[in-house]
Amino acid sequence: MKEIIRVIQEHVGFSIRGFLVVVLAMLPSILYGILPKNNITIEQTTPSIYMEQLENVSRVLFIIFLIVIVNKNMDYNKPVYIIGMVVFLLLYYYLWARYFINGRDVSYLGKNFGFIPAPLAVFPVVYFSFAALWFHNIPAGVAIVIFGICHFMNSYYTLHHD
């Protein structure tokens, strides 16, 4: 029992860094939810209801894990992880800017970025993966991998399903 209490004391709390990581990635999605969309021609479908549910559950879990699991005995100074986060967050913002600048035309949500299909599903997952590595947060990393697979499959299917 003492070991459980020690683990909780060392690894559960409020991570301001985790909170900021989540908020920074959610900003474009908030605008997307508020502002009207144009040129809606696709029907919202997913490969399976189970895949969609797994995506949603893993999303909630990784957000919670990033915010409440902290490693108080670690060095946060890992420049490669921070640089990776910045690069993929900026790429993510660029893609959202492309969507908003082009009149919120939903066809821009599915456009490839170079050879990368569904980049709006890929880039935030890579961003969050770098965050989990930076925080040494294994539970968040596992949830992010599950989320990433489901999110990509659901997004790609939705955007490219005839």
Commentary on this structure:
Keywords: Membrane, Transmembrane, Transmembrane helix. The longest helix has 23 residues, at 79-101. The protein has 162 residues and is mostly helical. It contains 6 helices and no strands. Helix content is 69%, strand content 0%. It has helices at 2-11, 16-34, 49-68, 79-101, 119-135, 138-160. The protein is globular, with a radius of gyration of 17 Å.
What's the main sheet like? none
Tally of DSSP helical segments: 6
The succession of helices and strands, N to C, reads: HHHHHH
Oligomer: single chain
Task: Decide which structural class fits the backbone.
Answer: mainly alpha
Nearest-integer average pLDDT: 87
Shape: globular
Which range best describes the helical content: under 10%, 10-25%, 25-40%, 40-55%, 55-70% or over 70%?
55-70%
Taken as a percent bin, the fraction of beta residues is under 5%
In angstroms, what separates the terminal alpha carbons?
Answer: 55 Å
Number of strands: 0
Radius of gyration: 17 Å
How many separate structural domains?
A: 1
Low-confidence blocks of residues: none
Keywords: Membrane, Transmembrane, Transmembrane helix
Transmembrane segments: 12-35, 80-101, 113-134, 140-159
Briefly characterize the structure.
This protein is 69% helix and 0% strand.
Features:
mainly alpha
Please specify the SSE layout and strand pairing.
Blueprint: H1 2-11, H2 16-34, H3 49-68, H4 79-101, H5 119-135, H6 138-160
Helix pairs in contact: 2-3, 2-5, 3-6, 4-5, 5-6
